[in-house]
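Backbones bend. To wit:
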Amino acid sequence: MTPEVKSEQGQACLRGLMQIWFEFERQLGRVPLIARLERGQFNRDDYCQLLLHWRQQVIEGGRWISRTASSFDRDFADVRSTVIGHAQEEHHDYEVLERDFVAAGGDLDALRNAERNAGTEALHAFLMYRASQPNPVDMLGAMWIIEGLGQKMASDWAERIETLTKTSGEMTSFMRYHGENDDDHLNKLYALLDRLCRSEADVKAIHRTARVTARLYALQLEEIDHG
């Protein structure tokens, strides 16, 4: 059950985040790799490339989430605890992704030695910068986009990939995990809306970070066909 958002600022923030999410969905639909998946033209090589480019973002996720937690002061001790718990839950995600990559026929050394693409570089730099600011309430917007991707898209993508590659789930564990668990992660973010959206400035900052995160995440996926 989604926690109730009670405050006026929290409700305004939620409405804006939902609109930004719809914009993000449209951006994803224009990404060549995702368009191929939607059209049924996606193959195992496409999947390996997706995982190869995803891995660096997944690894860096634990770092910027941890940095976010450490940047909150004692007045936000409860928020810090929630974010730290989230970082712990995400800490070993990359290992699941690596196993999926090998199961799909990819070379583990190539995966581990791959460089970040331009979109991943930009996304990581932006998130680390914002996470390093004092009391970075706007990082709620970044987590909303990334956790929302897992909750709303991962299971559907996994099903499509399994159908198109004629597999039964042995190489989509990473997506399946997020499809099953990011609903709980997102509910924790709902619970923070009233706590962190205390003014119009907070709402504006959260929306801006969500919008930038969405654009850079889409850029990261666009770069897969350029790498």
Remarks:
- The chain is about 80% helix and 0% strand.
- The chain has one domain: 8-226.
- The chain has a mean pLDDT of 89.
